[in-house]
């Protein structure tokens, strides 16, 4: 048995930043390297695993995509994550490199810590933590504190870090990173790119490489092989949650909306966009069944920006169901959202 530890890359980044796009790119450009993927999502329905399985990439057969849906990896380390990793490295054709896509709301540090668990410590290492940043969302101030609300809160409780839970997650992800991808560069001009990069560097005290990317397209030879051994270097990665045993996700919620088959997907997507804007929904994703089409339509919404494409044919025996995961700050008006999407 080889004594070499299997390198693992943890891909973190807020909801919709481009993590799955990055994984897809790496899998498609693996140059024969045997890769495996562990995907975790916040919602109850796994969409990202579906997308990756739909790629049909030879170097990453379907059984090498392990989905850990329904929960948050950083909170289910013992029950889900460590066993999943053990099972992957215990296979006769164990992967040469493992990519771990955390949910957009997960804090990466508990996951890095898990690599020190005795069951796996001698067999795996964190080759690098890569944070994918949604450039336009940063530029739009998505992760910034509201100065007035913050001042009001500080007046009551001096210990509070931020009034915006999005900012805490975003900063924790950056603070843990060995490499940062400033993604969606195609949607920003040069000056805004520079501003966003400055914002990022203001959060991160260490010298970390920041690369501007489109669709997460970064060369696997740049991304893989960072050799960070992050699990041995936890002090360099501060977190807003360092004093907590466990953190909760009460700040965010998700639910699933079922829609009927449609003959007019454009109209459905327009409705999704309007609803996302009206209810400040952070993320919507899922598949639509379109009348007369053998393919399912993958629909992705990040804030009010939507994209759709046919991804694969509905399989024989698979129900043609239109289902979308909706994720937002806690307190979403589920009834109103469901009603707005149904009409
Ligand atoms: N214009 C543009 N769109 C992008 C880029 N990268 C990703 N997207 C789109 O953004 C949406 C979200 O991308 P994903 O790769 O699914 O993001 P994610 O981080 O995996 O999302 P979650 O797993 O839900 O947190 C999709 O519609 C992508 O096509 C980019 O560089 N430019």
Automatic annotation (TrEMBL):
Pfam family, one: cobW
Catalytic activity: GTP + H2O = GDP + phosphate + H(+)
Key words of the record: Chaperone, Hydrolase, Nucleotide-binding
Superkingdom, taxonomy of origin: Bacteria
InterPro entries xref list: CobW, CobW-likC_sf, CobW-like_C, CobW/HypB/UreG_nucleotide-bd, P-loop_NTPase, Zinc-reg_GTPase_activator
Protein role: Zinc chaperone that directly transfers zinc cofactor to target proteins, thereby activating them. Zinc is transferred from the CXCC motif in the GTPase domain to the zinc binding site in target proteins in a process requiring GTP hydrolysis.
Name assigned to this protein: Cobalamin biosynthesis protein CobW
Species of provenance: Chelatococcus albus
């Amino acid at each position: 048995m080889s004594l070499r530890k299997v390198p693992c890359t943890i891909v973190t980044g807020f909801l919709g930043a481009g993590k799955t796009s990055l994984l897809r790119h790496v899998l498609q450009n693996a140059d024969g390297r045997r890769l495996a993927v562990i995907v975790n999502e916040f919602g109850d329905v796994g969409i990202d695993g579906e997308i990756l399985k739909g790629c049909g990439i030879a170097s990453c057969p379907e059984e090498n995509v392990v989905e850990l849906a329904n929960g948050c990896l950083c909170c289910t380390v013992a029950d889900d994550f460590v066993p999943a990793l053990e099972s992957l490295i215990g296979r006769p054709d164990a992967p040469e490199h493992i990519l771990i896509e955390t949910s957009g709301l997960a804090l990466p540090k508990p996951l890095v810590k898990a690599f020190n668990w005795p069951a796996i410590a001698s067999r795996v290492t964190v080759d690098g933590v890569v944070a994918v940043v949604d450039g336009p969302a940063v530029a739009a101030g998505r992760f910034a504190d509201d100065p007035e609300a913050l001042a009001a809160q500080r007046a009551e409780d001096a210990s509070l870090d931020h009034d915006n839970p999005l900012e805490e997650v975003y900063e924790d992800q950056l603070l843990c990173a060995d490499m940062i991808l400033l993604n969606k560069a195609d949607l920003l001009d040069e000056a805004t790119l520079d501003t966003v990069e400055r914002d990022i560097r203001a959060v991160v005290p260490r010298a970390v490489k920041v690369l501007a990317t489109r669709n997460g397209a970064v060369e696997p030879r740049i991304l893989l092989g960072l050799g960070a051994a992050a699990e041995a270097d936890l002090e360099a990665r501060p977190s807003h949650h360092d004093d907590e045993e466990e953190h909760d996700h009460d700040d965010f919620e998700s639910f699933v909306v079922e829609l009927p088959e449609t003959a007019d997907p454009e109209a459905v997507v327009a409705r999704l966009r309007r609803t996302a804007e009206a209810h400040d929904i952070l993320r919507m994703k899922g598949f639509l069944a379109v009348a007369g089409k053998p393919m399912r339509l993958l629909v992705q919404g990040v804030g009010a920006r939507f994209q759709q494409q046919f991804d694969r044919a509905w399989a024989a025996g698979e129900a043609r169901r239109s289902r979308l995961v909706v994720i937002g700050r806690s307190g979403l008006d589920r009834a109103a959202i469901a009603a707005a999407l149904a009409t």
